[in-house]
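Sample 3 of the quickstart, ligand adenosine monophosphate:
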Amino acid sequence: MACIFCDIVAGRAEASVVHEDEQVLAFMDIRPMTPGHLLVIPKQHATDLAELDAALGGPLFATAQRLAAALRRSPLKPAGINLFLADGVAAGQEVFHVHLHVLPRTPGDGWGLRGTFQWPHRMTLDAQAGQIRNVLPE
Ligand code: AMP
Ligand code: ZN
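Result:
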């Protein structure tokens, strides 16, 4: 199936590249939510986290960490950085090739996660921890 990020990796679609190595590519988001918004992707196609080779998680994060440092040194001078990954439609994923957003932040830039904090009982947290622990992959 056609994948815009695979097209970028292959050079069939244009991108403003910031970093490339054997495993990872990082480029400017075409519709930045804040100035300097970057995406880090594995070169090898993976639709979502479940498909992503676990060995690529480290290089993806390490690249995001280097990009965050570069953004802070750059004239964009963000006051903070958010890393964000949408896994699945319900999480807001729109491009089905895993990507890690690196979002420069400034006070009042309007970006944020919406939600309501809850205060579940410790028994609920322990029960949920158990449910997740029981099915942790190797
Ligand atoms: P997500 O909602 O996490 O799937 O985000 C997909 C992101 O990919 C959005 O922020 C888009 O602006 C970005 N995007 C889509 N197509 C391109 C493209 N051709 N080049 C760069 N960024 C893109
Ligand atoms: Zn792809």
